[in-house]
Amino acid sequence: MSTTTRRVAEAEARAMLRALELAGLGVRGANPLVGAVLLAPDGTVLGEGHHRGAGTPHAEPAALADAGDRGHDPRGGTMVVTLEPCNHTGRTGPCSEALISAGVARVVFAADDVNGPAAGGASRLRAAGVGCVGGVEAEASKHLNERWTASVVAGRPFVTLKSAQSLDGRVAAVDGSSQWITGPEARADGHRLRALADAVLVGSGTVRDDDPRLTARGGASGEEPAAGSGPALRVAMGLTPVPSEAAIRGAGFVHLPTRDVPAALDELFARGVRHLLVEGGPRIAAAFLRAGVVDELVSYVAPVVLGDGAPAFPDLGIDSLAAAPRWSLDDAGGPAVRRLGADVRLHLRPPPPGEQAEPVPVSDAGRPDPR
Amino acid sequence: MSTTTRRVAEAEARAMLRALELAGLGVRGANPLVGAVLLAPDGTVLGEGHHRGAGTPHAEPAALADAGDRGHDPRGGTMVVTLEPCNHTGRTGPCSEALISAGVARVVFAADDVNGPAAGGASRLRAAGVGCVGGVEAEASKHLNERWTASVVAGRPFVTLKSAQSLDGRVAAVDGSSQWITGPEARADGHRLRALADAVLVGSGTVRDDDPRLTARGGASGEEPAAGSGPALRVAMGLTPVPSEAAIRGAGFVHLPTRDVPAALDELFARGVRHLLVEGGPRIAAAFLRAGVVDELVSYVAPVVLGDGAPAFPDLGIDSLAAAPRWSLDDAGGPAVRRLGADVRLHLRPPPPGEQAEPVPVSDAGRPDPR
């Protein structure tokens, strides 16, 4: 290998690590997290990009645009990207065509695209004479998107569960009072979550008790969605009738009179929902957790101690600590742990599918290690 | 007021704000949080200091030492400090004498010292011809130490409550398994808390069930106490007998066979305990919370969801959200919200004594604002 070839190979390896870092800046949801770095033929970085969520440019066009903004010519360059470029006209055009038009000479990607309608980008690029290498850092890219991949493979929406609770895990006090456990900053953040999703779902009992609107109103931060914007669909799930005067009603309202989580997800997927935000109440939250379909959890924790009251996640059927799934702090989309006014926001991802809970450690004597 | 006098006055005002900031770097416990800034006669900063916890130098000697390290002469200078200098030989000598010996000409302090044995510093300084001005930013200083002041006035130890729980507020699963909810980094941090306190207390039921040692072993961080170091006293509280072979026994062990929190605190105060760490179990934690004597709460939250099991703080007698005390994130001693390995550590202070819980907000229509 010549010195130049080695230098370029090293630049591509560095670019892939950087692209993975960029991917992690994106927001989980209907689309996978993807990052991209455009290199000149000599390995110089020309542009960087990542996908910021459904309806915004994919990572490769974002990196091409960044290179353009910097006054760089992409022709003959190498696009290093964490996912096989798409070959699909969705809310944006196919990335394969964008790369061909831009005159990119080579594409290095990490994971294959498993999303049926979008796959096939590498074949299209090769047919157009663009050199294509896949599988570089594929495991890291797959790890970043394993829950998204699982939802695509299963043909169901990506599910975000949102919860607002006291420090001791209560969503309401003994008398049922629950407004407001968290402060205005946390609630505004919750409204931002709504604006990102295709649908927001609550239990029909919650509709009866709290009469939520489920719109995405503006809040304290400057990054608010426009007033009145919101998810395409507002869903009440469960057997409780939805009153005719309920605030959730109107265009985009759906009542799914079922307690069956997979059936509800099938119905919503058929209606085009690719990202579902589940907001509770606790029985609905627990049903989605039990079904193993929660792909991320956003938990707003208020520094209030209630001692008693409705638990955030009742009846999960977990008997021992060893059997409890270990979630992990997830920095995709921003720091996993954030202060929001007086409250704390945790962003968590579940353990990888099939991963066992950790066994309880025991001391040499075979009994739990005394504290 | 001459330009020079105004400049010096402004320097003193700035120095007091800086001293308050420095005070907040300290660690809560047996002593108050105090910060100090030494100024030259022209208002130049000569040195800074803060009190780092029981057994370490007070803020004023720390600022004098810092000035010395920087090669500055304290003579004729002004000490700006957030608490009246002490007049008491405790674990360190009286600050009043240190300031007089150092030739400091003027002392500006915020809050009066309410601690009987240590008070009187200002009188002593004035008697020695040192100019003394008190009450500058006194409210901010009092706010910083209001819980410490309350404990001193009540003649009881400052109480730190430590808790390790699942995201949903459980300290054990349904089968009783609780080791380990949190990971090694959180446990090591808990051992550091032990090393700072004069005494560590658990319920006698916890002694029977878990057989804790309550020593302060070293952990993952570099800032560990020496191996084998620990609190002076290990306390079991409650009516359950402590087995003769219990690991908690040995020099420094006390059993307080009572469920009465004030009585236990009286007894520990009489034994010289000025900082008590309460570690649980949940019934003990709740008893201290109900008694209103918890001065800070350190909560380790593991990203595991149990759904059921022993609650962290049972039976607080709080019926409504409006009646629940609102704690607040406390940055004294370091960021209030920290990641420790896979877990999150929250450092909280209770609402000021006598402060009401926030009323439940209602909409214009007089009913809870719908979400």
List keywords for this structure.
homodimer, 371 residues, alpha/beta, Cytidine Deaminase, domain 2, 2 domains, nine-stranded mixed beta sheet, 10 helices, disordered C terminus
Helix and strand layout, with pairings?
Two copies of one chain form a homodimer.
Chain A: H1 3-23, E1 35-39, E2 45-50, H2 59-69, E3 78-83, H3 95-102, E4 106-111, H4 121-127, E5 131-133, H5 138-144, H6 146-154, E6 158-166, H7 184-196, E7 199-203, H8 204-210, E8 233-237, E9 253-256, H9 261-270, E10 275-280, H10 282-290, E11 296-302, E12 328-329, E13 337-340, E14 343-349
Parallel strand pairs in A: 3-4, 4-5, 6-10, 6-11, 7-8, 7-10, 8-9
Antiparallel strand pairs in A: 1-2, 1-3, 11-14, 12-14, 13-14
Task: Characterise this structure.
Chains A, B: Its EC number is 3.5.4.26, 1.1.1.193. Chains A, B: It catalyses: 2,5-diamino-6-hydroxy-4-(5-phosphoribosylamino)-pyrimidine + H2O + H(+) = 5-amino-6-(5-phospho-D-ribosylamino)uracil + NH4(+); 5-amino-6-(5-phospho-D-ribitylamino)uracil + NADP(+) = 5-amino-6-(5-phospho-D-ribosylamino)uracil + NADPH + H(+). Chains A, B: Pathway: Cofactor biosynthesis; riboflavin biosynthesis; 5-amino-6-(D-ribitylamino)uracil from GTP: step 2/4; Cofactor biosynthesis; riboflavin biosynthesis; 5-amino-6-(D-ribitylamino)uracil from GTP: step 3/4. Chains A, B: Its cofactor is Zn(2+). The structure is a homodimer of 371-residue chains. The first copy, chain A, has 371 residues and is of the alpha/beta class. Chain A has 2 domains: 3-144, 3-Layer(aba) Sandwich (Cytidine Deaminase, domain 2), CATH 3.40.140.10; 152-349, Dihydrofolate Reductase, subunit A (3-Layer(aba) Sandwich), CATH 3.40.430. In chain A, 27% of the residues lie in helices and 20% in strands. Chain A has helices spanning 3-23, 59-69, 95-102, 121-127, 138-144, 146-154, 184-196, 204-210, 261-270, 282-290, and strands at residues 35-39, 45-50, 78-83, 106-111, 131-133, 158-166, 199-203, 233-237, 253-256, 275-280, 296-302, 328-329, 337-340, 343-349. In chain A, strands 6, 7, 8, 9, 10, 11, 12, 13 and 14 form a 9-stranded mixed β-sheet that branches. In chain A, strands 2-1-3-4-5 form a 5-stranded mixed β-sheet, sandwiched between helices. In chain A, helix 3 packs parallel to helix 4 (121-127). The longest helix of chain A is centred in the N-terminal third of the chain and has 21 residues, at 3-23. Chain A is elongated, with a radius of gyration of 23 Å. Residues 218-228 and 356-371 of chain A have low confidence and may be disordered. The interface between A and B is large, with 65 and 64 residues.
